[in-house]
Amino acid sequence: QMQLVESGGGLVQAGGSLRLSCAASGRFFSIYGMGWFRQAPGKEREFVAGISASGGSTLYADSMKGRLIISRDNDKKTLYLQMSSLKPEDTAAYYCAASAVRQPLGSSRHYAYWGQGTQVTVSA
Asked: Who's near 41: CB < 8 A, 6+ residues apart?
């Protein structure tokens, strides 16, 4: 069993940056592939970024590629998402998720554990 708690969301102006964190509980964080997803009002949840269990492999959604850095600290059991050059269309609730598959995956169906989300609002 794993519990995930996101933090770091907030209100930022367009062009600004934010770093999201996801703190995990449980003994086996280091064997889980991790991902970030987002969901805007009235839209489906979409993949943002993923990282392998070791941190050596990453995957990014094309819509945000070049503006994101996903990373993890397995000793601290924490996942991060550094976002830059934010746009109003990036406004959404951002969720972290854990997958039993070690490699980063873009589909939500592979992720068994989810956090409660943190809101990111980008003003024009």
From this structure: none
> Could you tell me the pLDDT band of residue 52, with boundaries at 50, 70 and 90?
very high
Per-position b or e across 18-34, b if 16+ CB within 10 A of its CB: bebbbbbeeeebeebbb
Closest by alpha carbon to 94, among 27, 56, 49? 49
Mean pLDDT along residues 49-59: 97
Task: Report the alpha-carbon distance of residue 21 to residue 24 in Å, rounded.
Answer: 10
21 residue type, one letter:
S
How many other C-beta atoms can be found within 10 angstroms of the C-beta atom of residue 93? Answer: 18
CA distance 35 to 60: 10
28: phi then psi, degrees, rounded to nearest 5:
-115, 35
Rounded to the nearest 5 degrees, what angle is found at the Cα of 24, between the Cα atoms of 96 and 51? Answer: 50
Asked whether the beta carbons of 61 and 106 are under 8 A apart, the reply is yes
Q: Using an 8 Å Cβ cutoff, are 2 and 98 in contact? A: yes
